[in-house]
User: Which sequence fits this backbone?
């Protein structure tokens, strides 16, 4: 019996060690990914420091020039436009779901939002090329260039429809689910008593939301937006299918753009045949990883504290 | 006057909210509608049952069976590969680890892992393949997809285990069971339906992902046979066919997108209904 007891304890302890080891591996996997990419990017970084890679605009792999600047600007342009388009409807939807919607409506909308989150990015890309790009080409571009064409940001030199705006629209829809679900969770964490106090003072529902709920939930809402941003920043296929992929700095929302993830995905074929090309593409992946890491860590820490302090 | 204003504001804001909700649901309907309307006319039996014949990419006959099979094989193997490590990590976090800052740090790190873009998993998978001397192959694709699915699996399983009542574990400990015995005989049994959901969700994420298999799995017109040869996948079939200038081939891309969407939706609906059906038998 005593022997049996020891065996059981031994099994328990060794299982604990194995599982603990795996947990360590999982917890440090991000760092391992970063180091592996860094090791592969090193030959290029030895020749050109990261700072100059990021700020140089010259992209000609055959001459050994790898400037990421146009791609970084392209990624930022598409991502920021997507956030600009996505954030207002997402916040309003989340507020509606958390504060107004009857339980049955909420229960039928939530699965729809889950489905939206599960749609593969190539399918978003197909939708983009079939619907978003033609609408931009046939309606938005002509109309905007007639009415607002004098503003440089809206100048329509590119009649194809493939560009920053198309990428922004597709990405905006792709980040709907994450922004809505995180925002709704944060809003729900605001204690009930505070709402009742505001309502008892004669506030309408919206006044109560504006003055109590949103003020209280603000850090969490910002975190939701940052999470959406980092999700959008790394999105590859859908964006690549609708932005036109021209390595230049976009000047208007109709100009084509080339994002960092698209750069990696489009050129993997040639990267082993040109010297330092693989190092450059893996350096691009490293830059992507670092940006997403920083944004996600900030968002998660803010979010954890926001939910803790709201409750 | 003041009173009218605040009620007007309430009305306007509520109207905007309903409009936003309609926009969100409407975009889902628009996406599914577009894929269905464009994909269904182009879909036929040959597409689902044949591999590409000579001249397929110029509009001649053949199908995408290579990509459908390739995707299923990739995802099944990747899911199997990431299931047990993910389960071990989650059980460790819930039963073995002491609650401290290290645990919070681990959770943070797993959250970060979840948001790593899939192209980065592809790039990392590629560096692993260079290290191992592998070329674009089924094995490479499995590794990249397993990495991608790993955090999805952990996060869903974590939520499942959070639902296991604390008392259940305490009863088991009080009976003299060790942590491992509690994990295997009590917690796992209670969490089984949820674990299945986690598996289906991870499959759904894996099967739809193109960026991670792009340079790890490659693409081929043949059926997958060995681990060391390239393998086709559905998302890449969509992408490559859409990229050709031939209209018939582009239409096949829409049909392939429809097939992919149906598989992903089936997985997500399956996960939902299984959770509901199986959770009747667990203790609440």
Assistant:
């Amino acid at each position: 019996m005593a022997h049996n007891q020891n065996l059981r304890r031994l099994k328990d302890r060794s299982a604990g060690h194995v599982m603990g080891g795996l947990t360590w591996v999982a917890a440090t996997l991000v760092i391992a990914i970063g180091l592996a990419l860094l090791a592969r990017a090193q030959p290029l970084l030895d020749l050109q420091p990261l700072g100059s890679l990021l700020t140089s605009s010259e992209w000609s792999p055959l001459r050994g020039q790898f400037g990421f600047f146009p791609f970084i600007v392209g990624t930022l342009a598409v991502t920021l436009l997507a956030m600009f388009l996505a954030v207002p409807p997402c916040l309003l939807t989340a507020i509606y779901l958390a504060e107004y919607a009857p339980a049955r409506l909420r229960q039928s909308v939530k699965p729809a939002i889950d489905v939206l989150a599960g749609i593969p990015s190539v399918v978003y890309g197909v939708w983009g090329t079939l619907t978003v790009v033609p609408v931009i080409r046939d309606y938005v571009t002509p109309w905007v260039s007639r009415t607002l064409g004098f503003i440089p940001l809206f100048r329509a030199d590119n009649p194809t429809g493939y560009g920053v705006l198309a990428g922004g629209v597709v990405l905006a829809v792709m980040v709907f689910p994450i922004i809505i679900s995180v925002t709704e969770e944060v809003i729900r964490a605001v204690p009930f008593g505070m709402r009742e106090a505001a309502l008892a003072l004669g506030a309408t529902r919206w006044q109560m939301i504006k003055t109590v709920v949103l003020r209280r939930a603000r850090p969490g809402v910002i975190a939701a937006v940052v999470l959406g941003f980092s999700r959008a920043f790394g999105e590859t296929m859908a964006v690549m299918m609708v932005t036109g992929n021209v390595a230049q700095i976009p000047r208007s929302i109709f100009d084509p753009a080339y994002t960092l993830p698209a750069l990696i995905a489009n050129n993997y074929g040639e990267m082993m045949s040109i010297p330092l090309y693989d190092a450059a593409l893996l350096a691009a992946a490293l830059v992507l990883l670092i940006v997403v890491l920083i944004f996600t860590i900030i968002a998660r820490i803010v979010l954890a504290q926001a939910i803790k302090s709201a409750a | 006057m003041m009173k009218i204003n605040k009620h007007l504001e309430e009305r306007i804001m509520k109207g905007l909210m309903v409009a936003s909700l309609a926009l969100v649901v409407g975009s889902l309907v628009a996406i599914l509608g577009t894929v269905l309307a464009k994909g269904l006319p182009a879909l036929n039996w040959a597409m689902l049952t044949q591999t590409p014949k000579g001249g397929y990419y110029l509009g001649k006959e053949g199908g995408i069976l290579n990509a459908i099979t390739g995707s299923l094989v990739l995802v099944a193997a990747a899911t199997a590969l990431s299931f047990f490590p993910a389960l071990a990590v989650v059980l460790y976090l819930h039963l073995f680890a002491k609650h401290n800052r290290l645990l919070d740090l681990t959770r943070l790190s797993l959250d970060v892992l979840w948001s790593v873009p899939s192209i980065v998993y592809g790039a990392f998978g590629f560096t692993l393949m260079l290290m191992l001397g592998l070329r674009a192959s089924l094995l490479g694709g499995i590794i990249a997809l397993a990495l991608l699915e790993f955090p999805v699996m952990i996060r869903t399983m974590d939520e499942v285990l959070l639902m296991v009542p604390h008392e259940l574990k305490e009863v088991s400990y009080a009976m003299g069971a060790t942590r491992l015995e509690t994990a295997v005989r009590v917690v796992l049994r209670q969490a089984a339906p949820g674990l299945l959901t986690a598996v289906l969700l991870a499959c759904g994420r894996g099967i739809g992902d193109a960026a991670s298999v792009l340079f790890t799995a490659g693409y081929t017109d043949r059926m997958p046979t060995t681990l060391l040869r390239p393998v086709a996948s559905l998302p890449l079939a969509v992408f490559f066919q859409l990229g050709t200038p031939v209209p018939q081939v582009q239409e096949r891309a829409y049909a392939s997108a429809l097939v992919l969407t149906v598989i992903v939706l089936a997985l997500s609906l399956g996960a939902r209904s299984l959770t509901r059906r199986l959770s009747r038998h667990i203790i609440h």
